[in-house]
Amino acid sequence: MDLTKFISSNCIVPSLLAANKPEALKELTHFLFKQKKLDGVSTALDQIMARETTESTGIGHGIAVPHARISGLKTLVCAVGRVNGGVEFMAVDKEPVHLIFLICYPPMQQTTYLNFIATVAKLLRNKDNMEAIMAAEAEEEIFEILEKVSVAFEQPEEVYKKVKQDPELGQTKDAHADLILLARLQLCQEMYDSARTGRKAIKKRMENIRSLVDPRILRQFDRLMKRLAPALVPVEGDTCQGCFMKLPSKFAQQVRADQDHIHACPNCSRFIYIV
Questions:
Q1: Is pTM, for the whole model, over 0.70?
Q2: Residues 199/164, Cβ–Cβ less than 8 Å
Q3: What is the mean pLDDT of residues 176-196?
């Protein structure tokens, strides 16, 4: 995913004034409102703060991805804030956060949000990419770096094709590849349903992705899309975002620990993914 399709240079703050997490979240939410990306502040800020009380969105490596699902938005929007000295975020690696991607997205773009966060995590766990952004002097330079490093992840199908064709990589890589491919397939379906032009190209890409997914998993995915779309949903605070039922604690821990398999929600049967 090209992150800069959802981030504009005027929504990047090279130096946040905030001294702590609540102040940072408030500053970035107000900034999105100021840039006319949100119609109001209170709903988004309340949801973002509530999300942080259940589980920190500090995903490690100096990155945080606070987010809120907002009815009425037409597309995902994001404000990027940089804290050069770092801010305590109760991140998973217990390290300070230096880059905050504050995300608001409409309910029908849940897969877009999922892919957006996955791309942020993948790109910025690369030390060189992170150092380049931290060294940038202005918002335009940060935007250009994000645009440049995102391009390589716009067409990942060929990467996973190689993964699945290499017998030495084994079952673990197959399961992970299938999960990412399902997310790509679902995202393409969202694009296809809302597109006014280019539907033929999107459909061809969907066919390419489908050819790479394990047939058994694909059949279940298709059944879910017909009956319970979306078929693949994130888990937030141990709660399935498809049926909004809390997962049993032991099962949620198992999902986090076991990346060798694709897991399904025991309540609604949707495939689940923890970022």
A1: yes
A2: no
A3: 83
Of 53, 65, 63, which is closest to residue 103 (Cα–Cα)?
Answer: 65
Instruction: Enumerate long-range contacts of 122-127, CB under 8 Å, 24 or more apart.
Output: 122/153, 123/3, 123/149, 123/150, 123/153, 124/61, 124/62, 124/63, 124/99, 125/60, 125/61, 125/63
Higher-confidence residue of 104 and 195: namely 104
Fold of 157-273: Helix Hairpins (1.10.287)
Specify the CATH number of the domain 3-153.
3.40.930.10
Mean pLDDT of 88-103: 93
